[in-house]
Amino acid sequence: MSIASVLIPSDKPHGVATGSSTGPRYSLLLSTDPSMVEAAQRLRYDVFSTTPGFALPAAADTRRDGDRFDEYCDHLLVRDDDTGELVGCYRMLAPAGAIAAGGLYTATEFDVCAFDPLRPSLVEMGRAVVREGHRNGGVVLLMWAGILAYLDRYGYDYVTGCVSVPIGGDGETPGSRLRGVRDFILNRHAAPPQCQVYPYRPRSGREVPRRHSPSATASSSPADARLPETGRAGLRGAGARPGLWRGRLLPATG
Questions:
Q1: Which spans does this entry mark as compositional bias, Low complexity (predicted)?
Q2: Does domain 4-93+126-157 have CATH number 3.40.630?
Q3: Tell me: the pLDDT tens digits for 17-59?
């Protein structure tokens, strides 16, 4: 059944305009409504198609980024209440949805057999984007608050998902950024060994030596350890215990 509900409302009274000095006010919606899912797909296309390193040739005609998993997901949508515009989105694939979809999206990129014992309480998150002009961190943090509210509402314990990381940028050593992110995750936020997954097409960053110690990672240049904002927000949400968010964050990297 298609639904749309406000998961986290704006703190702005209804009908009160927001002055430019205070910035926009946001509401977080939870929806499976086809029209809202389509709006999220259009937002994803707008962001991905203008992001270096992404290619969406198959979506050029429809100007929508969609796949077979969308219809089985609950979609977290951030709305600018001043304009009514959709400015951020995330999708959540709950256990029942994963069964209906024939598996996790992550399973198309990684061997996720280690997750099998966790499947009844595992939610996959992904396809997160924030519209340009709203990338001050607030929208991403609101989406993470929504993820926590979603887990609490439905009684799930574990989350996982993929984050795309460029191999390197202009003027950087090939593989340096990927290596920096990999080492940072392994040294500070690795999942327990029994829950680790492995990519089908690994990119090891062999052009540069691998670092193993936390002290070595601490010396990485900012470019080496640069994470996408969605990934940084997820790790900030992990709390004090490395490798865990709400006690149970399972990063998939590769």
A1: 214-254
A2: yes
A3: 444 446 678 999 999 999 999 999 999 999 988 876 666 666 6
